[in-house]
């Protein structure tokens, strides 16, 4: 009763009491919650009443609520505020959770009840039918129809897989933070803007070091790759970053093969030829043929454009005096130089107009203009890190969500940016709406002693992207947790995030908030024009880069046996859209958390799939006016508020009036 994780939370809107939770609370809380959840499942499975939607499917969706709350807290903090003790505990707890969820789908009495409701689902409303079908498929896809021996095998394989994916993620975090470079020779900083030097100096100071400290976190790593005149320094950082978890003390080489093998064994056990076929039955794409059709449709125009871009860039580098072979560690550096030359543009010139607080107000302002949302910062909600900011989200004078914003890198935080939640929106049996607790986690340029956090345009766009996911979670208006917010197919979930990026370069949007952090001057129209002109700079190369990850993902999870030589495997998988010789000792897969630990296995293509959706959907905004309230309301009503309560394709058709076409994406990216 003294465990804050299992007590009733006396916090605003029952937000997690982070100020009270300690590491030692998790293990007993999990064990208690597991027993409570098991009892709830037993009641559903063994009740004497005939099965119906309410007493079986809806009851199952509502079961395990306490376990879900504890899991959401634990696993979110595991990647954004971790510790060795949390990581050790995860290796103990994850198999227990996997075993529990396997118990549910292996429960023959429970499946029999689910099956009974499924066979009579025509009498249900749309949302009830979606939940019933999703529940039924979940049982089938998790061994419900296997014989006893195969069920044991399924349980063994999934238990092992859950442990390995956790270990993979832990290794990537450890390897990322294993390397840093302390610089005391200022000549090595040649080419780097003063703002980059200031941040590196502040980072060194936190370690009681003189000079400057650089590491592999994104703001630091990207600064080296874009600005460092010293080519050997760029090469050193590139090789360290690109060889993470590859033949080092956090080596994931064996793990990627075992994870891929386990997935294939699970798929075959369930009647599929390979893991991709297993996964894609639950996606918009439906099968591998549609995935490859998309990748290959985009591959040719992307490659043609990229080849021209690369030729132009190399010629430009030669004119600047570059000699020798053009390597991967030269790409970002000369791209930045070429961009400055072509557009008279300098990233530092732009950053001064994007102080973080102004960007927040701009992103919030757009959400107000389109969807009538208002945001009020509050200090009364407990946070897990002192620099996390919290907001009440209002719509029509009602609080509809709590939003957490976690902006800056930490040594115990995974790289990248993502949206997550500590609770999904849903309704109780009595019909009371439970608001979602949504969190955005990023790794943006931190402030220094004399400057606020000044975002790059790419960081602004990343914020817009993740905030699109947040809108999907915050605006959810469904009944059942399993259909709430972003609980949609992986190749559809990126639509709300990617469409939100489209406003990032609009003059009216930018001039509504972008002000010089010192003078207060509004961003000039000439600078916005440059942003627009640069929108398709290296569009072919960047498209090829995304496609290469999609091809690599499909290679790992298609039916073919994977090459035992990891470097040769990657070269083979990515060759059609790769433009550089592959440096020896570098490997993408061993740090590819998206597909080996983050749930995008056989789904990375979804970013390009959703680009097709977002470009086509945004074309309707362009036809009616990108701030048109009717169109925004339609997007809210057809997509944002519906979660997974309808089929993804139907939601798109409801909004766009037809199925998606690739034309708008090719036109927008200049690849048509």
Q: Can you walk through the features of this model?
A:
The chain is α+β, with helices and mostly antiparallel strands and 672 residues long. Among the domains are: 12-145, Glutathione S-transferase Yfyf (Class Pi), Chain A, domain 2, CATH 1.20.1050.40; 177-242, no CATH class; 356-533 and 607-668, Neurolysin, domain 3 (Orthogonal Bundle). It is built from 27 helices and 9 strands. The strands form 3 sheets. It has a 5-stranded mixed sheet with strand order 3-4-5-9-6. It has a two-stranded antiparallel ribbon with strand order 1-2. Strands 7-8 form a two-stranded antiparallel ribbon. β7 and β8 (433-434) form a beta hairpin. α18 packs across α24 (606-624). The relative contact order is 0.10. The model has no long low-confidence stretch (mean pLDDT 96).
Descriptive terms for the model:
9 strands; 672 residues; alpha+beta; five-stranded mixed beta sheet; Neurolysin, domain 3
Annotate the secondary structure layout.
Elements: H1 23-46, H2 53-62, H3 65-80, H4 84-106, H5 108-119, H6 126-141, H7 148-176, E1 180-183, H8 194-206, E2 212-215, H9 218-227, H10 231-242, H11 253-269, H12 275-280, H13 288-319, H14 328-343, H15 347-351, H16 356-371, E3 373-378, E4 389-395, E5 398-406, E6 418-423, E7 426-427, E8 433-434, E9 437-441, H17 457-474, H18 490-500, H19 507-510, H20 525-533, H21 539-557, H22 566-574, H23 593-596, H24 606-624, H25 629-640, H26 648-656, H27 663-668
Helix pairs in contact: 1-2, 1-3, 1-4, 1-5, 4-7, 5-6, 7-11, 9-14, 13-21, 17-18, 18-24, 25-26
